[in-house]
Write a structure and sequence with these properties.
This protein is mainly beta. It is built from one helix and three strands, in the order E-E-E-H. A hairpin with a 3-residue loop joins strand 1 and strand 2. The radius of gyration is 15 Å and the shape is elongated.
């Protein structure tokens, strides 16, 4: 059984990136390698400062 956790990693400009952490690593048959981190290409603002950043944080 593989355990998956949602994790945050600090990024530039007051943001954090979201990624999935898998244990044990998942084997990818296409590349032939095991992969543990899966980046979601999503980010969150730590402390939204502008009106645009605040509106992005409140939308679902």
């Amino acid at each position: 059984m593989t355990l998956i956790k949602l994790r945050k990693k600090p990024a530039a400009k007051n943001t954090v990136r979201l990624y999935l952490d898998a244990y044990p690593p998942i084997y990818d048959p296409i590349t032939g390698k095991s992969q543990r981190k899966f980046y979601l290409k999503l980010y969150l603002y730590c402390m939204p400062q502008s009106q645009v950043e605040k509106s992005i944080m409140t939308k679902h």
